[in-house]
Every structure is written in C-alpha cells, then in structure tokens.
Design a protein that fits this description.
Length: 128
C-alpha cells in the first residue's frame, strides 16, 4: 500500500538504516528478501537494511544494549532493492516489509487512472 505520510515522530516501533549500497551477500547462509521472499544466495547482490528498536528502560536489555536494541537485518534482493530505491525516491514511505512488486503495480494503476501512460509522447508539428 502506497503511503506518503513519513512523519513517524518518536512513536516508531522500530527504525532502520537503508543507506547501505547493493553488494554481494556475505553472510554464511542464504537469506530471504524481506519483500518478495525470494532466496538470496551467498554472493548474490542484495541491499541490507539494518534495524533497531527502542529498549524498555525497566528490562535487562536496556543494561546490555543501551537505548537501542539491534533487530535482525533485513535484506532486499537486487530487483526489490531497485524498486525500493525508485519508490523511495518518489517520496513514498513505509515500503519495507511490503511486496514491492505489488506496490509498483499499485503505482502503475494510480498513474493510469491519472492519465499518465508509459511510452506515449505528444508530437507537435513544426512549420518550416
């Protein structure tokens, strides 16, 4: 689902760093794309997304990790990483965890409904 509301404030359940570049997967085992759920083999290009959540001040985790508790890193396969970067560049938010192929279809339908058609140009005649 497309969303342009990017004002998370301090209420976010977790936050992330999506500034890592697409690079070969260097973990010991394969991972799944957090978007399309396809397998990412060791050595395949992917985009890691580092995640954290806020620690509960009353728990032991706060004494161990401090204010930020690391969550498992999510990975986007090369195809979904491109879709993510494109949609993020257009100003859409809350993309992680969604199937970005479906989100792109939704965007295409939205564009079609608005009268924007891919590959169509308006030709004008110039007078000699």
């Amino acid at each position: 689902m497309l969303s342009c509301d990017c004002d998370y404030g301090d209420d976010a359940e977790w936050w992330f760093d999506d500034t890592k570049e697409v690079a070969p997967l260097t973990t010991k085992r394969m991972r799944r794309c957090c978007s399309c759920k396809d397998r990412i083999a060791v050595g395949d290009d992917c985009k890691p997304v580092i995640r954290w959540r806020k620690a509960d001040c009353d728990r032991v985790e706060y004494r161990i990790h401090g204010e930020e508790i690391p969550l498992p890193t999510w990975y986007l396969c090369d195809r979904c990483a491109g879709l993510y970067e494109s949609l993020d560049g257009l100003g859409f938010c809350e993309l992680l965890g969604q199937d970005l192929r479906k989100v792109c279809r939704e965007y295409a339908e939205m564009q079609r409904d608005a009268g924007v058609f891919r590959g169509q140009m308006v030709l004008t005649r110039s007078e000699p």
